[in-house]
Structure of Aminotransferase class IV:
Amino acid sequence: MGQAVYSKGSWRPWVKIESDLGLWRADGALEVLEAQYGALFHFDEHFERLVKSCSGYKDLDMSQLPSESEVREHVEHLLKKESSNAIVHILVTPGTSADLKNTDGFPEMVIDVRRLENSSDAPPLKLITKNVRRYFPEFKLTAGYGYARRFQAEAAGEGYDNFLYWGERTGILEGPYENFFVVTKTGCLYTPASNVLKGVTRKIFLELAKKSDIFTEVCEVPWAIHLGYLERCSEAFLSSTTKGGIPAKESGDISQIRQIDGYDHFEVGADTRSAELKRLFLEYRENYFASRRKKTET
């Protein structure tokens, strides 16, 4: 495990955070990516989304933060302490505040690198929808993960593994950390096109699916995936940075979401379209890291 902090124009091993708005107001933007033996998984795309979150939502002065190449250099330096799989977190906050409300004008960046315990072989999930939504879903903001924990606790207390964001108009959107996909009985792969955080892994899944012959159609759908639409689906799964693809078994809690009571028909296991897509992704990821390891060795 290692950390580096960029504060007021210089890198430091740590800084005092007693007055940082990231602590007091859960105010910040975040990126998470995987690394293997020093090679970063799609770092450019993750950093691009971090800049989008900082500039688009927070309107932070990016000129006060280090460049993409400088950040990459520090991440790679920290990765030398991890010999195999690692998870990299990059956090940007508005920085310190004299009154714990308004920024002093010096944004800070924290890089955290630690060993990754891969959970890609997790068993099929039992999920429940919650009639809530993430604000500014196109940005990866720290605040949203805070209140998601409450809904996760509620779901666990009701006998579920996790929850899905859902709305009467928006339909099913995503999980607290994951993107949501369905496979229809006719072999179409669909995922919501809007009101979600468009993950890097999600993008790779879509690209691999379009190039394969697994599905009859692959599409980011502009229409809502309503609960009743699940009748037309044979599979559902989640994707995230560290989990690859997770087959997901949907079922409804009558007291919470009556209209999907009994929708527990989803296929799981090795002989499914989602499992085949996952194998393509794992092969892609292995080749991606292998090619970059060869470059560093030569």
Confidence is low (pLDDT under 50) at residues 249-262.
